[in-house]
């Protein structure tokens, strides 16, 4: 048995003989970005401050010889062989450390899919190094020369080895950037992203039931968070309540149905506000929430959508006992207003 010490918080995690650092952290409720879990993508790369470990077989493209000499390792394959292994993890309170944003990273549009009459999905692949990000964060996309000032869009997928980033963009009346994305961007075009930004990532050390509420393309960051949690084996119940005006305004229903069939702890609830349909509830989420969750005092709550939607859902969750430090929200900013990244690079609020 070895001990993993997280720096700078000083918190410790027990690691069984033969267990990887990533597995031990996840069993203790902590999360590292990861994807392949086979030493091939480099997503779980961290610096080891002291102690010895068996790195196992990893690809040089994921962990260069120079990085190895500087003390870095891939935690999906690393197994401690000393009594204590000290690694860089998070901040003084052991919350995840955000990756430094990059400006104007070049990507290619590899696919575009009309998800609903007003939402287009863009799939983007990097021409250089992939952006490292936490699920739930966002990037800036635009082209000022084309009359499309940069706007904030949440990443809709968990990190992948190929670096693909998925954006789901709602057409906003009078919004020049959303119009550019819907009407002018084509497969094969090159675009520039800046990011990642934002703190809509929750606290991976929380081990409680989760309630997610989303409307419109607010589903995007919720998809990324849910994908990452389910892939790392999150065990408590996770419920996603999705609101739309009509059935035509819903998307990703196939993916959500797959997750629900594969993961017993994951449940999807759909509510429509402007039509009644078999298999769906009717009404806005704040109105139906008490019937679904009479007590939210032990839940972590994630809400994403328009500011009005987020505000109403947060108020409803609080009235059912949800604690402020367990409520995580992200609200869009209107594209009618010229927008630059906030000075502190945060779009989200906790509580």
Automatic annotation (TrEMBL):
<protein>
    <submittedName>
        <fullName>2Fe-2S iron-sulfur cluster binding domain-containing protein</fullName>
    </submittedName>
</protein>
<dbReference type="InterPro" id="IPR017938">
    <property type="entry name" value="Riboflavin_synthase-like_b-brl"/>
</dbReference>
<dbReference type="InterPro" id="IPR039261">
    <property type="entry name" value="FNR_nucleotide-bd"/>
</dbReference>
<dbReference type="Pfam" id="PF00111">
    <property type="entry name" value="Fer2"/>
</dbReference>
<feature type="domain" description="2Fe-2S ferredoxin-type">
    <location>
        <begin position="2"/>
        <end position="93"/>
    </location>
</feature>
<dbReference type="InterPro" id="IPR036010">
    <property type="entry name" value="2Fe-2S_ferredoxin-like_sf"/>
</dbReference>
<dbReference type="GO" id="GO:0051536">
    <property type="term" value="F:iron-sulfur cluster binding"/>
</dbReference>
<dbReference type="InterPro" id="IPR008333">
    <property type="entry name" value="Cbr1-like_FAD-bd_dom"/>
</dbReference>
<dbReference type="Pfam" id="PF00970">
    <property type="entry name" value="FAD_binding_6"/>
</dbReference>
<feature type="domain" description="FAD-binding FR-type">
    <location>
        <begin position="102"/>
        <end position="203"/>
    </location>
</feature>
<dbReference type="InterPro" id="IPR012675">
    <property type="entry name" value="Beta-grasp_dom_sf"/>
</dbReference>
<dbReference type="InterPro" id="IPR001041">
    <property type="entry name" value="2Fe-2S_ferredoxin-type"/>
</dbReference>
<dbReference type="InterPro" id="IPR001433">
    <property type="entry name" value="OxRdtase_FAD/NAD-bd"/>
</dbReference>
<dbReference type="InterPro" id="IPR017927">
    <property type="entry name" value="FAD-bd_FR_type"/>
</dbReference>
<dbReference type="Pfam" id="PF00175">
    <property type="entry name" value="NAD_binding_1"/>
</dbReference>
<dbReference type="GO" id="GO:0016491">
    <property type="term" value="F:oxidoreductase activity"/>
</dbReference>
<dbReference type="InterPro" id="IPR050415">
    <property type="entry name" value="MRET"/>
</dbReference>
């Amino acid at each position: 048995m070895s001990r993993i010490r997280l720096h700078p918080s000083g918190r410790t995690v027990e690691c069984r003989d033969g267990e990887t650092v990533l597995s031990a952290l996840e069993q203790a409720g902590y999360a590292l970005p990861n994807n392949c879990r086979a030493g091939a993508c480099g997503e779980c790369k961290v610096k080891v401050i002291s102690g010895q470990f068996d790195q196992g077989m990893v690809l040089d493209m994921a962990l260069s010889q120079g990085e190895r000499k500087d003390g870095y390792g891939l935690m999906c394959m690393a197994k401690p062989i000393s009594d204590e292994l000290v690694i860089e993890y998070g901040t003084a309170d052991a919350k995840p450390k955000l990756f430094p944003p990059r400006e104007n990273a070049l990507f290619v549009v590899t696919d575009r899919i009309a998800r609903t009459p007003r939402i287009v999905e863009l799939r983007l692949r990097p021409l250089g190094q992939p952006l490292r990000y936490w699920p739930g964060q966002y990037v800036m996309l635009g082209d000022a020369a084309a009359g499309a000032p940069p706007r904030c869009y949440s990443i809709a997928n968990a990190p992948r080895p190929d670096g693909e980033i998925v954006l789901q963009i709602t057409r906003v009346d009078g919004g020049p950037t959303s119009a550019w994305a819907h009407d002018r961007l084509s497969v094969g075009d090159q675009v520039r992203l800046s990011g990642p930004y934002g703190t809509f990532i929750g606290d991976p050390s929380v081990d409680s039931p989760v309630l997610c509420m989303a409307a419109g393309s607010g589903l995007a960051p919720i998809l990324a968070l849910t994908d990452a949690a389910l892939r790392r084996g999150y065990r408590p119940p996770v419920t996603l309540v999705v609101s739309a005006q009509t059935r035509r305004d819903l998307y990703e229903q196939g993916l959500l149905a797959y997750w629900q069939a594969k993961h017993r702890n994951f449940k999807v609830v759909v509510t429509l506000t402007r039509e009644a349909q078999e298999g769906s509830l009717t009404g806005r989420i704040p109105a139906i929430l008490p019937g679904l969750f009479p007590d939210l005092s032990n839940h972590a709550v994630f809400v994403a959508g328009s500011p009005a939607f987020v505000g109403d859902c947060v108020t409803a969750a609080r009235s059912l006992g949800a604690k402020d430090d367990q409520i995580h929200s992200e609200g869009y900013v209107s594209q009618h207003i010229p927008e630059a990244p906030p000075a502190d690079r945060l779009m989200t609020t906790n509580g």
